[in-house]
Amino acid sequence: MPKQVDFLVVGSGIAGLTFATKAAKYGKVSVLTKKRKADSSTNYAQGGIAAVFGKEDAPEYHIADTIKAGEGLCHNDAVATMVREGPALVKELHSMGCRFSMNSNGNFDLGREGGHSKRRIVHAKDFTGQEIERVLLEETKKVGVIISENEIALDLLIQNGDCLGIYYLDADTRQIDVIYANATVLATGGVGQVYQHTTNPPIATGDGIAMAYRAGAMIANMEFVQFHPTAVYNIKIDGRSFLISEAVRGEGGVLKTKDGIAFMEKYAPAGNLAPRDVVARACLSEMIATNAKYVLLDVSHLQADFIKNRFPTIYETCLSWGIDITREPIPVVPAAHYLCGGIFVNEWAESSIPRLFALGECSCTGVHGANRLASNSLLEALVFASRASERVKKINDIHPTEKLHIRKSAKTGPNLMFQIKEIMDENVGLIRNEKTLLTAKATIDKFQACFEDGIHIINAESRNTSVIAQIIIESALERKESRGLHYMTDFPKKNSKYCSDTIKHIDVKHD
Ligand code: FAD
Ligand code: SIN
Predict the structure, then answer these.
(1) Ligand 1 centre and the CA of 286: distance in Å?
(2) Which fold has domain 228-334?
(3) Residue ranges of domains in the chain
(4) Ligand 1 pocket, 13 CB below 6 A?
(5) Second label for 397, Cα 20 to 30 Å away, from 256, 342, 426, 486?
(6) pLDDT one-digit tens code per residue, 41-52
(7) pTM over 0.70
(8) How far is CA 103 from CA 88, 109, 144, 235, 247, in A?
């Protein structure tokens, strides 16, 4: 690992890799990733990327759908940028060799998902993310970007207010080291692992957001955690609940109670294709009303061959658990899936700390507002990573006043992951209120005290999830209303007083 590079990227999902492949034109890029290269949420994305290609579609419709779902909190300029710049980048992925599903006319086979008024989901059957990750990893090789695996970023290195790089741990040697960069790019993904039940892989512990928060960056809208309505009930693979893509409902899948009664029509005119927050809360209400631990997702009325061809991963995975989805319904529950908030950035992905950029799920560009529309996440990552790569070409060289070594002490902290997850599931889930939030806060505040001062090399993820839990809870307590993904039983209505971003940050004195 070089000690100084032009551009340092933390994370090897769609956001980090897109930036790395494009920024390689302008300087030396290093990518650090905490496990293996493809260990990312990107690799598990199923539904696809939303982009305007349909004959009946237009950017104005995609913009309007996105803003509608965001319930008053979308940054409209950022939405327009994403929608207008996205299709060219999707085409670029295709020309790099991404095997998107095509129709018989040679055009993208466009899928449908909740909240989208048109068919606009470009996909590779139901393994879109795996295909994107594969192509981007190949591209990094072609352009000479080196990816270092098993390197865990621990904290940002700040000098005179600028971010000059990071402290990281080599997981194999257990050594902490420093790497300097003219621009540091956090692309560390989401926070799903703060919850017990999540579709996110184990890497999703909010590291980048926690690092940026500790360094004094502005963090926005952390109360808006999206719960996906349909994760398979009671079965986990490598620490994550298996997702049943929204595209399954897009092709005709129907949610039913345990007793087989379809229920979505009574909650929303769009029925099974209502936005995710509405569907997830409807599932929970039905589970409570029928005293059941799950609801059912039924596709058995669709042609078996169509199901096997369109959703091969879902079909095979369910079959391996003894569920033949062509014949019987799938037991599903809501699970933590996506974070709409994150490190607050501008339209070039610059954070509030000079020389620090944030991309993808760890960032908050403002495109999702209070509720993300399905398949807008991969699109956001592509667009803002590409914009950031154009921005960094103008960045000048750093001149650290002193070469820092490991001045912070390395400590070991307790492993509190299990307790944090339990508290968050019970008190800060799909439905909250002030009492549950305060209960969670009291415990998390105590946990936080265990992690004061020093870099924690053992249980660094525990330290990070504890910070993330704290910011989610404090942000949720501030928003005394219900809007989008944030539903408070004691404030069940939207209140115009809260029609703005929730910003959290701490004043930090850097040594
Ligand atoms: P990720 O892809 O999660 O990558 C994060 C990277 O950062 C990883 O390489 C990780 O190892 C690394 N990292 C984290 N912490 C550290 C650290 N401390 N040090 C070093 N490296 C670190 N969105 C859509 O738009 N369409 C979909 O169809 C879709 N389906 C989804 C299905 C599932 C099951 C899931 C979980 C999400 C889905 N999403 C979908 C959301 C979307 O996949 C993610 O938001 C997106 O892939 C995030 O990309 P990213 O590059 O920001 O982060
Ligand atoms: C899905 O396929 O349902 C996930 C899509 C998304 O999270 O955008």
Answers:
(1) 30
(2) Flavocytochrome C3; Chain A, domain 1 (3.90.700)
(3) 3-47+126-224+340-402, 228-334
(4) yes
(5) 342
(6) 999 999 999 999
(7) yes
(8) 19, 5, 34, 34, 16
Angle, helices 59-69 vs 76-96, to 10°: value is 120
> Distance (Å, rounded) from C-alpha 456 to C-alpha 169?
10
CATH fold of the domain at 3-47+126-224+340-402: FAD/NAD(P)-binding domain (3.50.50)
Mutate-to-test residue for ligand 1 from 9, 31, 40, 127, highest number of ligand atoms within 8 A of CB: 40
CA of residue 504 to ligand 1 center, whole Å: 23
Among 224, 241, 243, name the best residue to mutate to test ligand 2's pocket (greatest count of ligand atoms within 8 A of Cβ).
243
Residue 134, CA distances (Å) to 57, 87, 97, 141, 283 in order = 29, 20, 9, 11, 34
- Give Cα 148 distance to the centre of its chain: 22
Enumerate residues 6+ apart whose C-beta is below 8 A from 152. 34, 168, 169, 171, 207, 460
Q: Ligand 1 pocket, 189 CB below 6 A? A: yes
Q: Is 276 a catalytic residue?
A: yes
Q: Cα(319) to centroid of ligand 1, in Å? A: 26
pLDDT tens-digit readout, 433-470: 999 999 999 999 999 888 876 666 678 899 999 999 99
Q: Is 35 in the pocket of ligand 1 (CB under 6 A)?
A: yes
DSSP class of residue 486 equals B
- 103 Cβ contact partners less than 8 Å away, ≥ 6 residues apart: 109
Phi, psi at 262, each rounded to 5°: -65, 135
Which ligand neighbours the alpha carbon of 149 most closely?
1
